[in-house]
Design goal:
With 310 residues, this protein is an alpha+beta fold. Helix content is 46%, strand content 21%. Strands 1, 2, 3, 4, 5, 6, 7, 8 and 9 form a 9-stranded antiparallel β-sheet that branches. The chain has a two-stranded antiparallel ribbon with strand order 10-11. The protein is rod-shaped. The termini are far apart.
Length: 310
């Protein structure tokens, strides 16, 4: 029986207990802040292998993405599956509570509704379908986007793009920024920024994307262009954050090593001082013995001289 793959806090290669969901606004910072004993950030080595564009079969035909990431340890075949989608949080009569809804909803309030863009950790691909049906209901896989190892984005890069898409429309809007817009914007941004990929789907399935009761409700090209334009500088900022985290931990490690060296030097100096004291004590004893011996010889010489006179 093979050993289970090593885990990461933000990528689970084994199916987690219960639901673990993280807002995309937190997922990227959590990855960038991760420290792994001085090695390269492991999220930068977990490559995105493929994306599946999915559509629910009932209700408002909610759309979501399923992402498959490879393991950061070379030679491992393990994959971590996450589900990415946009839902909406509407205020209830109780201002301290809220309800979460998928797909298209209409808020009676004049205030914009908060969009909940999040990733849910599914775990192993073996459990993906059953766990997705449990959380999303019956669904159909419309398209697959595959990335070759040579140009696949890392989990850290994907988290950056998810954050940028969210920033284009932080609020949920019934007409423009809904689940259809979010899934399509993420899909096309990744496809454009990381070329060499292969999109697999039938024309009929492709045309089902971004449609509700026969009407097209997406996509919006300006959003994709804005994400792609903002990505280089945002990715540079994320990389700088990763470097700062590494430098901070390297500095702490160097300080700990210096404290250890100082403590070691102090301990060694104490041992040297003890040894010198012991040697000094031996030398003092030797001089005392030599003095006593000289005195004894002098006494013996005096006694011999007086005996000769007698």
């Amino acid at each position: 029986m093979s050993e289970p793959p090593a885990q990461l806090p933000q990528l689970r290669f084994n199916s987690p207990d219960g639901k673990i969901a993280t807002p995309v606004t937190e997922w990227c910072p959590l990855m960038a802040d991760h420290w792994d004993s001085g090695r390269e950030n492991p999220y930068a080595k977990c490559a995105l292998r493929r994306i599946e564009f999915c559509k629910c079969s009932n209700g408002v035909r909610h759309e979501f993405l399923v992402l498959y990431f490879g393991h950061w340890i070379d030679g491992s075949s393990a994959e971590a599956v996450v589900c990415v989608d946009r839902t909406v949080k509407l205020r209830t009569q109780d201002e301290n509570s809220a309800k979460q809804f998928p797909g298209l909803v209409s808020s009676r309030s004049s205030e914009p509704s908060q969009a909940l863009d999040s990733i849910a950790m599914i775990g192993s691909p073996h459990d993906a379908e059953s766990r997705l049906i449990q959380s999303q209901g019956p669904y159909k896989r419309l398209c697959t986007l595959r990335f070759p190892p040579s140009s696949a984005p890392s989990a850290l890069e994907v988290s950056t793009i998810l954050l940028l898409v969210h920033q284009q429309a932080p609020s949920y809007d019934l007409i423009e920024s809904h689940c259809f817009w979010f899934s399509d914007s993420v899909w096309r941004s990744l496809k454009k920024l990381f070329p060499g990929n292969e999109e697999l789907c039938t024309l009929n399935d492709h045309n089902l994307r971004g449609r509700f009761v026969g009407f097209t409700v997406g996509p919006l090209d300006p959003s994709v262009h804005a994400v792609c334009d903002a990505y280089p500088s945002e990715w540079q900022r994320v990389q700088e954050k990763v470097r700062q985290v590494k430098q901070q931990h390297d500095a702490k490690l160097a300080q700990a090593e210096q404290r250890g060296l100082a403590q070691g030097r102090a301990e060694r100096q104490a041992e040297i001082d003890q040894l010198c004291a012991e040697r000094q004590h031996d030398a003092d004893q030797m001089r005392q013995m030599e003095t006593e011996l000289a005195q004894f010889r002098a006494l013996m010489g005096v006694a011999a001289s007086e005996g000769a006179k007698d």
